[in-house]
Specification:
The complex is a heterodimer of chains A (about 190) and B (about 450). Chain A has eight helices and four strands. Chain A is mainly α. Chain A has a domain of about 120 residues: Orthogonal Bundle (Cytochrome Bc1 Complex, Chain D, domain 2). Chain A is globular, with a radius of gyration of 25 Å. Chain B has about 450 residues and is mainly β. Among the domains of chain B are: about 170 residues, Sulfite Oxidase, Chain A, domain 2; about 130 residues, Immunoglobulin-like (Sandwich), CATH 2.60.40. Chain B is about 10% helix and about 30% strand. In chain B, strand 19 and strand 20 form a beta hairpin. Chain B is globular, with a radius of gyration of 24 Å. Classes of the chains: A mainly alpha (about 190), B mainly beta (about 450). Strand 4 of chain A pairs parallel with strand 16 of chain B, so a sheet runs across the interface.
């Protein structure tokens, strides 16, 4: 190889480096940019503190008929569970119960006696329910079902309107009932 | 009192009740084994006359494009917890007692799918990486397959594996029912860190949320450090595309981490400042503690599957036919690293011998251990206990229960009333050779 072509290669490498902003030149960079609008269609996560809760609202009264129509077949009347779930077997969980949490036994946990935060209830209903037709409920309907389950569980007043402002303020009784199994691995 | 020397005691005995030295496996001391009276003469009557069988006298079967096991292996299948596909989770368990080696065949890898198995067209599947990144991006499978790939063995274990052992009494079930929610495969894919690097991580990101494209859009919060460490987006399982039940066309593999965190059908990764405390991390994958432990608090974020082992042969359902030499074979693994040692006992933990580990011993993967055992025809209690290279060791059941407790009534064998049980499992062998699950 002549000195000239070697210099040419060096020049090309240098030029390439100058134009490539990302640090790793070897990385293929085959992802495509995505618009905020597109991200929004898929971005359904709600943070524990209620961040990203959408506009809309609902009440227990609005949630009751919806629950009877779309949820009770699997979760039992009023979310009180089917026979399978009441026996602690793998089944759609009991959502509403006045049972106390019993140490050791995960089958005695409910939303009211165990969940540390309320916003994830909205998150889960919206992303996964109803079991046979997920992602079909409107945000208002999800708020209404959230309100219904929390009211039936006596965590909120039956008349309370649940929305992006009120849901994060709901105090779950077991808020401080947890300790990370591996504290050193928890990001700070 | 001086122990009476049993007629079984030999130079090759490494622990009492017939546990032989692992040397006997390696060929080096074959003469000693024969010398101990275990040679051909010990097998009794002569073999039946040799004859020509029909399969040697005719044309065999046609060759299928994708081969399946022999019809004589048709009992080697997963057990299904929801065989009629009722509206609840579907769970299949690996038949460890009928398998060997350290890789789970793809068709027998355990699966848990909460709303059926999605029928994903890989050409239409997309992976979105967004949140606290400088350049949110969408990737196609074709694009990702052009990235530098790596292969690694990694076990996958449900946090609920072994949950029946929280029972106060030993549930009479086979290994598949007790420990079948654990499997191991070689995964091939791209390192998640490469993609995160391309997207540009915002320093405010501490966690990432991974989400699947299946109907429940199952998601978990994972510390970002794991994503930068050894996390992989896998496309291949034991050399072929992922099985549909294991996440086709792409899944997250977080070596050593609780199965549910290894999001299947991966479609979205979002970098976030804190965990979402989703249904899965608020209720399902938590460990309620016994009264007066842990200040009454339950554990959450139990990322690591701790060191565990169990004997696959003999095990319940694989009864011993006659006294004599058997191989004790089992599986050990640790979510922290490599298995360094497995000890085996045939007398319920009074004496132990070190098992041979099948090479290569890989980090966060199944390690097969084996040890020869001469069953005297009398009662025995078989146990295995594993150690890893982080100094962690498998607790005895008593040690485990002292820390984590046990249920006050026997649960259904399919129930998950607590998680992350990793203590020693015991199999008793009675004088008829029947193998049962016991606590010892």
């Amino acid at each position: 190889m002549s000195m000239r072509s070697r210099l040419a290669i060096l020049f090309c490498l240098a030029a390439g480096a100058a134009f490539a902003a990302p640090p790793n030149l070897q990385s293929p960079h085959l992802g495509k940019p995505v618009s905020a609008e597109d991200i929004k269609r898929w971005d359904i996560d709600i943070q524990a503190d209620g961040a990203f809760l959408p506009p809309g609202s609902g009440t227990a009264a609005q949630g009751a008929p919806l629950f009877a129509e779309k949820c009770s077949a699997c979760h039992g009347d009023g979310g009180r569970g089917t026979d399978l779930a009441k026996r602690g077997l793998p089944a759609p969980p009991v959502l509403v119960s006045d049972r106390k949490f019993k140490p050791i036994d995960g089958s005695t946990t409910t939303i009211a006696n165990f969940w540390p935060y309320a916003p994830p209830l909205f998150d889960y209903i919206r992303r996964a329910m109803p079991w046979n037709e997920p992602r079909t409920l409107s945000d208002n309907q999800v708020y209404a079902l959230t309100a219904y389950i929390l009211a039936e569980s006596k965590v909120i007043d039956a008349k309370q309107v649940i929305n992006a402002q009120s849901l994060p303020k709901v105090i779950m009784p077991n808020r401080n009932g947890f300790r990370p199994r591996f504290p050193d691995m928890m990001p700070r | 009192m001086k122990r009476r020397k049993s007629p079984d005691d030999t130079a090759d005995q490494a622990a009492s009740n017939g546990v032989l030295h692992r040397r006997a496996l390696l060929g080096a001391s074959a003469a000693a084994v024969v010398g101990a009276g275990l040679g051909p003469a010990a097998t009794g009557a002569a073999a039946e006359p040799l004859i020509e069988q029909p399969w040697g006298l005719q044309i065999g079967e046609d060759t299928p494009a994708y081969q399946v096991p022999s019809k004589f292996s048709k009992n080697i299948v997963r057990t299904l917890a929801n065989p009629k596909f009722e509206p609840r989770s579907s769970i299949s368990r690996t038949p460890h007692h009928l398998l060997e080696g350290s890789t789970t065949p793809n068709g027998l890898h355990f699966t848990i799918n909460h709303t059926g198995i999605p029928d994903i067209d890989p050409r239409a599947h997309r992976l979105l990486i967004h949140g606290l990144v400088k350049h949110p991006q969408v990737f196609t499978l074709d694009a990702l397959l052009r990235y530098p790939t790596i292969s690694m063995a990694a076990f996958m274990e449900c946090g609920g594996n072994s949950a029946p052992l929280f029972s106060p009494t030993p549930i009479q079930a086979d290994l598949q029912a007790l420990h079948g929610l654990s499997s191991c495969a070689e995964w091939t894919g791209v390192k998640l860190s490469v993609l995160l690097d391309e997207c540009g991580i915002d320093p405010k990101a501490k966690w990432f949320i991974a989400e699947g494209a299946d109907a429940p859009h199952l998601m978990r919060s994972v510390p970002l450090q794991k994503g930068l460490d050894d996390a992989m987006i896998a496309f291949y399982q034991n050399g072929e595309p992922l099985m549909p039940g294991n996440g086709f066309p792409m899944r997250l593999v977080l070596p050593g981490f609780e199965g549910n965190l290894n999001i299947k059908f991966l479609r979205r990764i979002k970098l976030v400042p804190g965990p979402a405390m989703s249904f899965w991390e608020s209720q399902v994958y938590t460990e309620p503690m016994p009264p007066n432990k842990n200040d009454g608090k339950s554990f959450n974020f139990t990322f690591i599957n701790e060191v565990k082992s169990f004997i696959t042969r003999p095990s319940p359902g694989l009864d011993l036919k006659q006294p004599g030499i058997y191989e004790i074979s089992g599986i050990a693994y640790s979510g922290r690293g490599k298995i360094t040692k497995v000890m085996v006992s045939a007398d319920g933990g009074k004496s132990w011998a070190e098992a041979a580990l099948q090479a290569p011993v890989q980090t966060k993967a199944f390690t097969r251990f084996r040890l020869p055992w001469r069953w005297s025809g009398g009662p025995a209690i078989l146990q295995s206990r594993a150690w890893d290279d982080h100094g962690a060791y498998q607790p005895t059941r008593a040690e485990f229960v002292a820390q984590r407790g046990q249920l006050d009534s026997e649960p259904a064998v399919t129930a998950f009333r607590n998680h992350h049980f990793n203590a020693v499992t015991s199999w008793s062998v009675d004088s008829r050779g029947t193998v049962r699950h016991v606590y010892a």
